[in-house]
């Protein structure tokens, strides 16, 4: 597993998400208003919508294309349990954000 520094925490809007390229993958990093930090694949498995542009809840994101909701703690889709998103380990240290992806 490779951990990559993607930049300062302040680059990710509170209550939103931002897309980053990490080891050739498009990864969405979310910073809910309630606190915490989540990272997931940026592409919705239903219709390839950009999840980083979705509405962020306390532990969920809603795809901006068809409003499918994904749990950011489990990756499960609320609308259709047969769909899941890949989650990545993410952490903040000294104001910098690090994402770990499998090689």
Strand order across the biggest sheet? 1-9-8-4-3-2
Number of helices, where a helix is a run of at least 4 consecutive DSSP H or I residues = 0
What is the alpha-carbon Rg in Å? 12 Å
Structural class: mainly beta
Could you name the key traits of this structure?
3-stranded antiparallel β-sheet, Rieske Iron-sulfur Protein, about 100 residues, globular, single chain, mainly beta, 6-stranded antiparallel β-sheet, 9 strands
How would you portray this structure in words?
This protein is 0% helix and 45% strand. The protein contains no helices and 9 strands. A 6-stranded antiparallel β-sheet has the order 1-9-8-4-3-2, with no helix packed on it. A 3-stranded antiparallel β-sheet has the order 5-6-7, with no helix packed on it. A hairpin with a 6-residue loop joins strand 3 (25-31) and strand 4 (38-41).
Topology:
Blueprint: E1 2-8, E2 16-22, E3 25-31, E4 38-41, E5 55-56, E6 60-62, E7 69-71, E8 87-93, E9 96-101
Antiparallel strand pairs: 1-9, 2-3, 3-4, 4-8, 5-6, 6-7, 8-9
State the gist of this model:
With 103 residues, the chain is mostly beta strands. It has a single domain, classed as 3-layer Sandwich (Rieske Iron-sulfur Protein). It contains no helices and nine strands.
